[in-house]
């Protein structure tokens, strides 16, 4: 090493990016203790920052787990659970594609494969909205039909609000209590079926009446009877064929049960025709 003019120069060959080690008696070796610094955020790797971000333990996880006091543990158990909203919540968790596929299957009534497709995941979303739509369609179209009948004969016309409540009671009551009664009968004959599955089947069986009621706006009595009759036959066939295989296990009386299901569905179509589309120019309705 030479010095001159206040500058120090190194005689050894220069190595790019490094300084050659100086050897000598006064050489001091410095040892560094292992670092105890912790990385942030914490990770399993020591001495370096992990590339995976992990939120701190006190982060707000309200949307990842139920809040205190609202967990499933606080819900009633046993048979009391059947009377809670949470018991039926999974039956409304379906995709639009699932509902559309089941509606399409209900229109092809002779396949008889609806119960097999919905055995694992029956839903109540489709039946609820089908019944609600039927109430609106039956009330609106039935009112419009009576309006035309009165105007064509130059008679006074008054809106009948009872048609809405009557339609609601008919469709909601039919889809609720008919499957319930059938469930009890099948259980008596040792051929039980899922109650929710029966509600699902009967709910989708009523979809055919929506286009039928829309077509019945044509003021031709024979045409209305044909439309409602075809819709009732398709709906009854859809329910009977999907339950036939299952009801056969009830014994020799399975045929009478299936026949009763078929005729009851046809009776619904006749009631719709007689009440909704049978009007008097004097503002009264009659089932006769």
Question: Which shape, going by the Cα principal axes?
Answer: globular
**Which regions are unreliable across 5 or more consecutive residues at pLDDT < 50?**
43-73, 279-288
Helix content: 40-55%
Structural class: mainly alpha
Mean pLDDT: 73
Number of strands: 2
Element order: H for helix, E for strand: EEHHHHHHHH
Work out the radius of gyration. 38 Å
Largest sheet: 2 strands, antiparallel
Classify the beta-strand content into a percent band.
Answer: under 5%
Q: Multimeric state of these chains?
A: single chain
Our measurement of the CA-to-CA distance between the termini, rounded to an integer number of angstroms, reads: 125 Å
Helical segment tally? 8
Strand order of the largest sheet: 1-2
List keywords for this structure.
288 residues; 2% strand; single chain; globular; mainly alpha
Structural commentary:
By secondary structure, this protein is mainly α. It has a domain at 107-278. Helix content is 48%, strand content 2%. It has 8 helices and 2 strands; from the N terminus they run ββαααααααα. The chain has helices at residues 96-107, 114-117, 125-152, 162-188, 195-205, 209-215, 221-247, 254-276, and strands spanning 2-4, 7-9. Strands 1-2 form a two-stranded antiparallel sheet. Helix 7 (221-247) runs antiparallel to helix 8. The longest helix has 28 residues, at 125-152. The chain is globular and about 60 Å long. It starts with a strand and ends in a 12-residue tail after the last helix. Mean pLDDT is 73; it is low at 43-73 and 279-288. It is a multi-pass membrane protein. GO terms for molecular function: small GTPase binding.
